[in-house]
Amino acid sequence: MSDRPYSRLYWETMEDPKFDGVREDVTHFGTWSLMLILAEMAYPVPAFVPAVAPPPSVTLLAERGLIDLLSGGRYRMHGLAAERAARSEHARDAANARWNAPSIAPGNAPAVLAETSIDEQSKDEQVAYFEATGRIPRSPALLDWLHRLWERYGEAAVRAALRTEVMADASPGSLMGRTERRLFTESAAAASAERAAEARKVREQHAPVVIRPIRSGMSAAEVEAAAAAYRRDEVSV
Q1: What residues in the chain have per-residue pLDDT under 50?
Q2: pLDDT for the residue 236
Q3: pLDDT value for 91
Q4: What pLDDT does residue 83 have?
Q5: Has residue 224 been placed in a domain?
Q6: 149 and 88, same structural domain?
Q7: Do 72 and 87 belong to one domain?
Q8: Which domain holds residue 33?
């Protein structure tokens, strides 16, 4: 499989009735092809209808049931979710085959038992990479890198970072480098915000209490003004 991101164009488009009137027109078919690529890049969120797409072609694709037009100039490509689910299942099968293949190394039973939970996690890591890039990670260095990020930053953060960074460049080295930088930056920012919140909480707990005397005979408006001033002092401390 190529290391470059791709979109699949199946031959069945030549006989699928939904493509009648589309495949015969280069403009319509080209518009569908472009929107397929953009939908793949944006998946799992909806893509935006490209500005270069001719409105008559977009309308025809929607009428043929090839796309769903959404609010805000967005759309979803019909069949893409099923296609990506099938690819993910293929990645899981490949991961299972890799990790469950019989070993020819003698006396390895204790090691296999000890590594069961790690293997299960590694399958999830490979599936996450496949879902973001459309490629099964095979390089030991890439698998180790992915596992290290997974252990340090967690599944949700790694999945989100991969989906974001793959938009710029999906080549493994570049993608993983940018993914790690994003994860480090986001983690550092979160830690800094947490420390700031804790420091603010400590300051509030030790802030001096400002007591403003209320003299007898004060009108209701004067009492309210004194209370407002007290509240301002509390906030500013």
Answers
A1: 1-3, 103-118, 237
A2: 52
A3: 59
A4: 74
A5: yes
A6: yes
A7: no
A8: 11-78
The answer to whether residues 49 and 87 belong to one domain is no
Closest CA to 32 of 6, 59, 4: 59
Q: Are residues 89 and 176 in the same domain?
A: yes
Task: Give yes or no: residues 87 and 173 share one domain.
Answer: yes
Question: Are 67 and 78 contacting, i.e. CB atoms less than 8 angstroms apart?
Answer: yes
Residue 13 confidence (pLDDT): 84
pTM above 0.85, yes or no: no
Per-residue pLDDT tens over the stretch 43-85: 888 889 988 899 999 999 999 999 999 999 999 988 877 776 6
**Burial class of residue 13 in the structure, from the number of CB atoms within 10 Å of its CB (0-12 exposed, 13-18 middle, 19+ buried):** middle
Distance CA 123, CA 127 (A): 6
Give the count of domains, the chain.
3
- Do 74 and 95 lie in a common domain? no
Tokens of 24: 């015969």
